[in-house]
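Suppose a colleague, Dr. K., hands you the sequence of a protein chain of 255 amino acids and asks what its three-dimensional shape might be. Before reaching for any lab equipment, you can write down a predicted structure in token form. Begin with the sequence itself:
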Amino acid sequence: MMRKASAALPAGTFILLIAALWEAGTMLLGIPHYIIPKLSDVFVSMWDNRQTLAGHFAVTLGEALLGLGLSVALGTLAAVWIEGSRLARKTLYPLIVASQTIPIIALSPIMVLWFGYEVWSKVAVVILFTFFPIAVNTADGFRSADPEIGDLMRAMGARKRDLFLKWKLPSALPGFFTGLKMAATISVGGATLGEWLGGESGLGMYTKRASNMLRAEAVFSGVLLLSLMGILLFLAARLAERAVLSGRFPGEQGR
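The predicted structure, expressed as tokens, is then:
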């Protein structure tokens, strides 16, 4: 625990420094509160609206998790298909890469048209954000498998199923978790964008309404909670990575 506390000390000190500069800078520079409020006012607003924010936080988190879960399933299946099919490798993989040339924000209104203003339009936007890093990183992980190990396993009579489960799949796990950590972080942005385009609840809608009313402290409190959500999802993905790649449960010592 002492080692972990020492490792977290630089980051904690840096965050405290930014907080102090924010609080002091807004007062010393005389910045209007409707542009950049004092950090203390942001925390006061967060506390005063804690019940409302908790409800909106739960909505956005649910949208992000549902979209992320579907992206994990779809992205992993796409990567397995790309690895197992030469046709998919020559057609689907380039198509997935080319899809990123289309601005996602331009596709988001289409999701609203297709799925309406219910939760599925927000989930669809999250999938647009998160499918690519999971699919591409997992597919690249499959391709990174050491061919010499595969040749040795074939020489020892390994079946196709054994080659996949004991050679290809373990080689793809680091790439999968790299994509998962990226997707976990940006899933919050996808859910927020979906709420901006059409929603009745969630932190994205909360910040939009607060902005329309020039309540900067409420806007910043929502933004801070969105940032916290992204950090928590990233840490959860990182914890899962350590548990799987190390072969240990999260509560055990070591990596």
